[in-house]
Amino acid sequence: MTVMNRWILLFFVACFSQAANAVLKIDITEGIEGATPIAIIPFQWNSGTRLKDSDISEIVSSDLARSGKFSPVAEKSLLARPQRPEDIHFKTWRVAGVDHLVIGSVQMIANDSFKVEFRLFNVYRGEQVLGYSFNATSATLRTTAHQISDLIFEKLTGLPGAFNSRIAYITSSGKPVEYRLQVADTDGYNPQTLLTSKEPIMSPIWSPDGSRVAYVSFESGLSAIFIHDIHKGTREKIASFKGINSAPAWSPDGKTIAMTLSKDGNPDIYIISLQTRALRRLTSHWSIDTEAAWMPDSKSLVFTSSRSGKPQLYELSLDKGSRPKRLTFDGKYNANASVSADGKVIAFVHGANNSYKIAVLYTDTRVMQVLTDGPLDESPDFAPNGAMILYASQDKGKAVLAAVSTDGRQKQRLALSDGEVREPSWAAKRK
Amino acid sequence: MKIITMKSSMFALVMALLISGCTTGVQPDSETGVDAGAGAEGGESGVGATVGTIGEGGAFAGSALEGMTISYEKNAINDPGNVLSIKTIYFAFDSSELSEDDVEVIKHHGKYLALNSDATLRLEGHTDERGTREYNIALADRRAQSIKKLLLFQGASSSQITIISYGEEKPAALGHDEAAWKLNRRAELVYE
User: Fold this and answer.
1) What is the pLDDT at residue B52?
2) Which domains does chain A have, with CATH numbers?
3) What mean pLDDT value characterizes chain A?
4) CB 3.0–4.6 Å: which of A266, A269, A369, B52 could bond A282 by disulfide?
């Protein structure tokens, strides 16, 4: 992994009206080498004034840069600003080593009604490879921009884009500490607070359809697991047993939540059916079993267990009579798995010599690769397309979010201007 | 010569401070040993007994508990000289094992609960910030559970004890080094 020059994405977010909803600021901290150069020409606003925070080309540039797979040409360095296909002089861009070019426009067709168009060109072939038109309102322009990012990303990488989605995370600030469960766009915009509490909130995780968030709240003085419907604003308590109620994990088929309970005397993994509320105990061991993460088929899960003396990852099938199979053998602390959507890669926390780093394990070859530098990295969560891992980190003693591309090449930091932020979860879909 | 004398008197002063400091509570990562069996007997010798004394080679000689009184009177938990004033138990990293001193302290809390059936205790488990948050919730739960088992063994009732595991969510000391971590790997006995 080569350490690159630090550069800061032109992405400083202006003040939001809700003071409590501090916005995440994203800095790309490492790695643009090897990324595909792409020129995104500022979109032309055909009528009306350019809306604040809704600069489509800037949002698309930021999204693609954050993926680690693209290196958008800085706006200042653009050789030309063609607005129509016939204005593009492909040879100029070819000489500059730019592989792809995006042009587009925003047209106000009525009060608060916009038509957004974009075209993607392959510079070497000199032809259009993608073109779409969208209707939007001022409230959905950013969403449209993320949709454009997803379309470009998928066309050029073959992987589905994950930009038009949401992240959930926990923030804390103030004295006495106030904890908040928030959800925001994947670039940190539009933060909404789902819950504010004087007691800890932990472990938010999205439902596979992106409509609900499960989490642990200590608001009653004891831990309990809730499911929060982000559109209706309603919530439901699904577990408040004696002892710990922790580490909820939503099965990919949406039917079941795995969790850790100590109601029977020791932390063990249980699953609860969301339809029948039937509870089934999956592990029964004197050691710690916790942090379940589902495999994509919803038929087995990976969890952390200290049954060997130190925390290691194990895989367990839901089939009756199955025994856990140990997955990690390198080092004395391997915990808190997140499984990629295709099941091929498991991200986890690897601890050694007082330093905790994000590592990945390839399930076919069993090769382990450490991706981050620590010292207190935790809570890895795969982006839905498996290209990036979002995690929690420390920067100058402050809790921040960070992301690393799954190949470890590119890193970025998402910090709150005020307060601490941790435990990110990336929704698979926007709903 | 003079310098040496100064040093030795300084040493004596430091030791005296350490010993008197120790009587206010079991210190984290204390390396002092104690004969738990003898201590237990001392504890059973009667309400109001004093556990050892400095220089007399009593049951708690060399122990952090030296000089503390034992009483299970209703308000004994508020007496800074009573062994029950020790309400924080510290742990090694990724461990829920109790030291012999801790076992001794917890036994007295167990007896107190047994003798004061209207007393209720909230057992809070905590960890330092290292390792993963949910693993730490489980680890802190085990810390509290190991204390609860001892309390029950002394005759406390399960209904008197509520366990809550905070993991690393509520550190006692801020900071990212062992000085802070050792204060955070703890269980707190909170009488309600």
Assistant:
1) 41
2) 34-157 (3.40.50.10070), 166-426 (2.120.10.30)
3) 89
4) A269
Higher per-residue pLDDT: B166 or B66: B166
Residue recorded with tokens 């079993």: A289
Judge: A311–B131 Cβ closer than 8 Å, yes or no: yes
A interface test, pick of B97, B122, B127, B132 with most A CB neighbours within 10 Å: B132
Distance from the A419 Cα atom to the nearest Cα atom in chain B, whole angstroms: 14
Does B34 or A118 have the greater pLDDT score?
A118
Q: In terms of pLDDT, which residue wins out, B65 or B33?
A: B65
Say yes or no: A338 contacts chain B, CB-CB below 8 A.
Answer: no
> What is the model's pLDDT at position A28?
59
Contacts of A289 in chain B (CB under 8 A): 138
Q: Give the one of B129, B142, B145 whose C-beta lies nearest to A376's C-beta.
A: B129
- CATH number for the domain running over B2-191: 3.30.1330.60
Query: In this predicted model, which residue has the larger pLDDT, A53 or B88?
Result: B88
Pair A27, A8: CB distance under 8 Å = yes
User: Are A213 and A193 in contact, with CB atoms under 8 Å apart?
Assistant: no
- C-alpha distances in angstroms, B110 versus B60, B84, B97, B191? 19, 10, 18, 12
CB A402 within 8 A of CB A413: yes
